[in-house]
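Internal QA ticket QA-208
Title: Verify multi-chain structure generation after dependency bump
Assignee: T.L.

Test input:
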Amino acid sequence: MNVLYPVVTRSLSATRADSVGDKDLLHTSWAEADRLKAGDRAGGSTDFKHLTLNLTMIAGKITGLIVTDVRFPTSLGHHGSDAMHTDPDYSAAYVVIETDADDGLKGYGLTFTLGKGTEIVVCAVKALSRHVVGRALEDIVTDFRRFYRQLTSDGQLRWIGPEKGVIQLATSAVLNAVWDLWAKKEKKPLWKLLTDMSPIQLLSCIDFRYITDALSEDEALEILQNGKRGQEEREEYIEKNGYPAYTTSCAWLGYSDEQLQKLCTNALKDGWTRFKVKVGADLEDDKRRCKLIRSMIGPDNQMMLDANQRWDVNEAVQCVSELASFKPLWIEEPTSPDDILGHATISKALSPLGIGVATGEQCHNRVMFKQFLQANALQYLQIDSCRLGSVNENLAVLLMAKKFNIPVCPHAGGVGLCELVQHLIIFDYISVSGSLENRMCEYVDHLHEHFKYPVSIHHAAYMPPKDPGYSTEMKEESVLQYQFPDGEVWHQLIIDKKVEV
Ligand SMILES: C[C@H](O)[C@@H](O)[C@@H](O)[C@H](O)C(=O)O
Ligand SMILES: [Mg+2]
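Actual output:
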C-alpha cells in the first residue's frame, strides 16, 4: 500500500484538535492527504503542507554534520565492566549538526559504544549524512515519519542493517541530534516538547511498519489520547519528586569486594534503595557478591541481577535458581539478546520464584520488542535511547509496552545514556504509562561532568531537565581532550603505554 502520510504540526493541533478531537483529526488529515495526492496526480500544483497547515516556520537548513570519535578510558578503573564486556571504554560517536539559521543553535546527538569500533559507527554516520545535510529542519520534523523511513530504508545502506547493528546505532546518533535541535528551537527540554505534542503529532513521528499486527495506529492514538488525562498532575508530581532511579555503579563486575562495600555504603547514605549487581562470570563469585550486597542493603531494598548475555537458556534457569535466595527482582539479559523464545522459557521457569526477566539494551528495533512482548518473554522492558532508532522508535516501543501492560525500566549504563533516557521515561510517565508501579530508571554515576547539561539526581530520583534540548551536548573541551586517538588524554595514555591502540 502506498500511503501518503498526513503532515501534522503544532498549529494544526492547536486549532482543529480543540473542535473535532484528535481521532477525527487523524481521519480528516488522512482524507486530506488522499485528496491532495489525487490533486497532485491530476497535475494540480498543491503545496500539501501549506494547504493543510498554517505553519510557524522552524528556521534553518542543515548545512553541516560533524561526527567525532570520543572515548573515555573507563576500563582503567573497571567502571562499566560486566560478564561479557570486561574492559569497556565508555565511548560515543558524537554528532553535531549545524544550520544556516541566524539563531546559532546546533543539534547534538550521540550513540553509545565501548571503545573499539566507534570508528565504524563514525563511518556509518558519515554514510547517512547525505540524507540530512541540505534538508530544512522544518521539512524533517513536520514529516518525521517519512524522514525516519528515508534514513532507515536507503536502498543500498539498509543492506548492512536493516534497522540493526552499526547502521542503527548511527541512525540513532543522527536523529538524536535532530531531536536535540528541534527541542532547542522550541525552547523546551525534550520531554516537554513530547508531552506538549498532540497525540496526532506524536503518531506522525512513528514508523508503524512491521508492528501493526501488535499495535495499530488507532490503538496508539487511543493510548495517547487517554494519556492526556491527568497529564498536568503527573507533570507536577515529577517536577516535585523526580522519576525513581536505581543504581548500577556500586557493583560492576571488575570491582573488588572492598570497593563494592564502600560504594554501597555511600549509596545507602545518599538515599539509594535499589541496586543492580553484575553476575554471570562465576556462580560462586556471584553468590558471594549477592550475599554481601543483600546483607548491606537489608531485606526491604531492591536488588536486580544482570548477566549480560553470559548463559545458555537452561544454564540461566539453573544459575538464577541458585541465586533466588537473595531475592532479586529481575535477571537482566540472561542469555543471547536475540533469543526471544529462550527469554520466554526463562521467564516461565523463573516465574514461580518471583523473579522477572529484563532485557532491551541490545534489542535493536521495535520488531524485536514486539516479539518479546508477544511471546511473554520479558517482564521489564529496557528501552535504550541510542540502540533503538532515536526518539521515533522509542515512542513506538513505549506505546507497545503500554498496550501489553509491561513496565518500562530504561537502560542507562553508558556515557550519556542517563542524560538522554531520562527525557523518554519522564514522557512515558506523563503521557503514556501514567504509572510508576514496578518502574524505575537506571542510573550510573560516571562521566556526567563532561556534559553541558548533566543529569540532576535528588533522593535517588531523576529531576526533570529544564534546559532546552535533549541534554546531549558535551563540553567542548571534553570532546577535544577525549577525541580518539588524537585528544590530549589518549595521546598521553598511548605515550605512557597504558593502553593498546
Ligand atoms: C558495558 C556496559 O557497562 C554494560 O555492562 C551496561 O550497559 C549494563 O548492561 C547495564 O545494564 O547498565
Ligand atoms: Mg544491562
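Spot checks passed. The chain has three domains: 19-52, 62-222, 230-477.
Status: verified.
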